[in-house]
Write a structure and sequence with these properties.
The chain is built from 10 helices and 8 strands. With 238 residues, it is an alpha+beta fold.
């Protein structure tokens, strides 16, 4: 069994994610399913960007632990998650001290989107980007009544591809495509975070960023004018 598969079935790790859901009184967006999705995204990304097997293992390990301490108030969850990961991983002997240092740093900065100088390693960039790539699938544009309750317009998936040094993100298959506008997308906190880190990510790795809503190319200059807040509210600068 692979190292990551063993961790996903570990009783302590599973209990940590259950505690997160119980404390928040709903199935959190930062639950074990989010961790599993990011682990799969990382595997796809590794093939696209030729990330080596050892680096992929470190990336997936970070993604498993990055939100594991988000119980109740999310303030400080990065530090708590990094501390837990370090205390959990050190006794296992799977990673060297240098690798643990990178893993610790990447978890600690996984929600950084203002000061990218905080991202000290390529691993940190990959963790931050993959995390936001998954979370931005949710809570898009207007709420609608469906099956007797209020739901969001959700993006079914964000696809991505690389060709001629151009990294493309493609938003595919929304419930009501006509109701999702470019302006509406950039008003969403998580989506704006994802696009902001996407632009910076491409600059860091020497790639050209492009994003599409179905077949329409989005204007990524809108990312520069978006004010992003941790409380879930995004406003545009005037």
């Amino acid at each position: 069994m692979k190292f990551i598969d063993k961790l996903l079935k570990d009783k302590l790790i599973v209990s940590k994610f259950k505690a997160c859901n119980k404390a928040n009184n709903y199935r959190s967006r930062h639950d074990i399913f989010h961790a599993k999705r990011t682990i799969k995204i990382a595997e796809r990304l590794s093939k696209l960007l030729d990330i080596r097997e050892r680096e992929l293992l470190m990336l997936q390990t970070c993604l498993l632990f990055h939100d594991i301490e988000q119980v109740g108030n999310r303030n400080g969850h990065e530090q708590k998650a990094a501390d837990f990961a370090k205390s959990y991983l050190e006794p296992l002997g799977e990673f060297s001290k240098g690798e643990l240092k990178e893993i610790y740093s990447a978890i600690l900065t996984h929600d950084e989107f203002e000061d990218y100088n905080m991202l000290k390693f390529d691993l940190s960039w990959n963790v931050n980007f993959v995390d936001k790539l998954d979370l931005s699938r949710h809570r898009i544009d207007k709420r609608v009544k469906k099956w007797g309750r209020t739901v969001y317009h959700d993006i079914e998936r964000l696809d991505f591809e690389l060709s001629d040094n151009t990294f493309k993100i493609i938003i595919k298959t929304v419930f009501f495509p006509k109701a999702i506008s470019e302006q509406g997308l950039f008003k969403q906190n998580l989506f704006s975070k994802a696009m902001k880190i996407f632009v910076a990510y491409c600059e860091h790795f020497g790639l050209k960023p492009k994003a599409y809503l179905e077949n329409k190319e989005l204007n990524l200059d809108n990312v520069k004018s978006a004010m992003i807040f941790d409380d879930g509210k995004t406003k545009n600068k005037k």
